[in-house]
Amino acid sequence: MEAAAAGSQQPLGSSTTCGPRVSELTEAGNLAGVQHIILVLSGKGGVGKSTISTELALALRHAGKKCGRPASLQVGILDVDLCGPSIPRMLRAQGRAVHQCDGGWVPVYVDQEQSICLMSVGFLLENPDEAVVWRGPKKNALIKQFVSDVAWGQLDYLVVDTPPGTSDEHMATVDALRPYGPLGALVVTTPQAVSVGDVRRELTFCRKTGLRVLGVVENMSGFICPHCAALCPWTQSSLRA
Amino acid sequence: MHPSPPGHNAIEEIKEKLKTVKHKILVLSGKGGVGKSTFSAHLAHGLAEDENTQVALLDIDICGPSIPKMMGLEGEQVHQSGSGWSPVFLEDNLGVMSVGFLLSSPDDAVIWRGPKKNGMIKQFLRDVDWGEVDYLIVDTPPGTSDEHLSAVQYLSAAHVDGAVIITTPQEVSLQDVRKEISFCHKVKLPIIGVVENMSVFVCPKCKKESQIFPPTTGGAEVLCQDLKIPLLGKVPLDPHIGKSCDKGQSFLIDAPDSPAALAYRGIIQKIQEFCGLHQPKEEHLISS
After folding, report:
1. Which keywords describe this protein according to UniProt (chain B) (predicted)?
2. pLDDT score of A237
3. Where are the domains of chain B?
4. What is the crossing angle of helices B146-154 and B114-127, to 10°?
5. Which of A143, A198, A209, A239 best tests the B interface by mutation, with the highest count of B CBs <10 A?
């Protein structure tokens, strides 16, 4: 894990022959072929950021076919939750290896069509139960590598899944993505007041960092009982307050 | 605030300051949103129901401080005295500290990097005048990062009884909890046990049970068997818990006979028994 993070850097901009359609502009960097970037944020943990990131990526991929295009859209997912990387499991990609090419790390393709690719610290752990017990500076360094040293290639969308909070990972991600003009942020909450409270803080973070907020998603609004089909709200939604 | 990693002086100062605290319990989870703060709040409420037990609740989730809201203390401010910062008292025997009390508006975001968060945690442990306390409960954010390392390092000389680890039944939570358990082993933090939250949902209309977060890999029960860690209990998913938390009230008082409240009480008793068996070196009899 340590070696993978620290010693595997390949020079950017060298002739790139791997992966699908990587840009050959020497100055452009590995995100030059990415059209839109969406950060999925929430001040609160456990509201469904990773689930929504995964579903959003899958839905965007299919959106291409629905619009009459001959092929799916190309979508990448960047999982910057270093302590709790959930996306590999959600896409049944646990245990996959990360390979190198001239342009850097090759993201892991999770489907046969190679229309969804993923990078996560989950792929770099020798043992899935191993904890990533890092302080901020080390986390920041890996996130920078994930942004600049992964050969993302030509993507219609890059969905960035984040951990809860407004700290190192979030600042490092926004700083690293800023030159590429991120499309914006999707903020996820659940109806409870404690979630909405954290989301207010996340919206402040977006404002202070100049991130455009695409909108807020209220997840787990209620539960439909599979036995009697009654809709059970968890609580009075605090979202409109 | 000092941004450098914990120095020897701070650790010794904190050891001195916390000499009046008999038992220290960390509430951890690798996973977010499993109910750490909810559990911490109700552990505090449950222990403090005995007016002879002095309880302190410290919220070190710097970016997402939920404890003030859950304890009905939003908007309270922290005061300073000659002996340090005064916690906010919900009851005579229940004091609370959180970064939430230091923010002037609920919209204020704490956008701090690790070193600044560490400094805040040091201040919370060194500068808060808790007084004579039977139980100090420390609520943490999800993960295994700065806050967790700092808490463990600053408390390294002060004898922590152990950690209660919270999870929900699904594998996405359990995989993060295994990491948290690995963290505890790495830093030699004893584990009191695991609590499985949101186990089953009982429909208020038809009363039938559903598993909203199915334990596809056996849930906390199998995890605890595999890793030989006590399972302290399973708490059903009761919408009333969230409603009580939103109102800043104790669910144990609001719905005392509910299965969830009974589950909480069983778990709290096991934690008290664990602490009773593991007395600190400076002997005091536990009053509760």
Report:
1. 4Fe-4S, ATP-binding, Cytoplasm, Iron, Iron-sulfur, Metal-binding, Nucleotide-binding
2. 57
3. 8-277
4. 30
5. A198
Element of type H or E holding A176: helix A168-177
Euclidean distance between CA atoms A233 and A236, whole angstroms: 7
Selected from 3.90.1150.10, 3.50.50.60, 3.40.50.300, 3.30.230.10, the CATH number assigned to the domain covering B8-277 reads: 3.40.50.300
Report the C-alpha gap between A72 and A68 in whole angstroms: 10
Checking if the pLDDT of B109 tops 80, the result is yes
**C-alpha span between A149 and A29 (Å, rounded):** 8
Q: Is B178 in Cβ contact with A166 (below 8 Å)? A: no
Distance, in Å, from the CA atom of A141 to the CA atom of A164, rounded to the nearest integer, reads 19
pLDDT (average), residues B173-184: 92
* pLDDT over 70 at A234, yes or no: no
Looking at beta carbons, which residues of chain A come within 8 Å of B212?
A: 223
Pick from A11, A37, A12: nearest CA to A180: A37
From B26, B44, B38, select the one nearest B90 (Cα to Cα). Answer: B44
pLDDT of A63: 85
* Cα–Cα distance for residue pair B120/B103, rounded to 1 Å: 13
Cα B191 to chain centroid distance, Å, stands at: 13
Q: How confident is the model at residue A236 (pLDDT cuts 50, 70, 90)?
A: low
- The ipTM (two decimal places) reads 0.82
Strand, helix or coil for residue B9 = helix
Enter the pTM of the model.
0.86
Distance from CA of B92 to the nearest CA of A (A): 25
Tokens (6 digits) for B72: 């009905």
Helix, strand or coil, per DSSP, at residue A238:
coil
> What SS3 class is residue A2?
helix
Strands A75-79 and A213-218: unpaired
Q: In what order do the strands lie in the sheet with A155-161?
A: A108-109, A116-120, A75-79, A155-161, A34-41, A184-189, A213-218
Question: Please, which residues 172-211 of chain A have a Cβ atom closer than 8 Å to chain B?
Answer: 190, 192-194, 197-198, 200-205, 208-209
Confidence band of B284 (pLDDT split at 50, 70, 90): very low
Which of A91, A113, A98, A111 is closest to A151 using CA atoms?
A98
Pull the structure tokens for residue B100. Answer: 């939430």
For B33-45, the pLDDT digits (tens) are 999 999 999 999 9
Share of chain B above pLDDT 90, in %: 73
Would you state the structure tokens that stand for residue B173, as one six-digit string? 């939570």
B224 is in an annotated binding site: no
Chain A: nearest CA to B209, how far in angstroms?
9
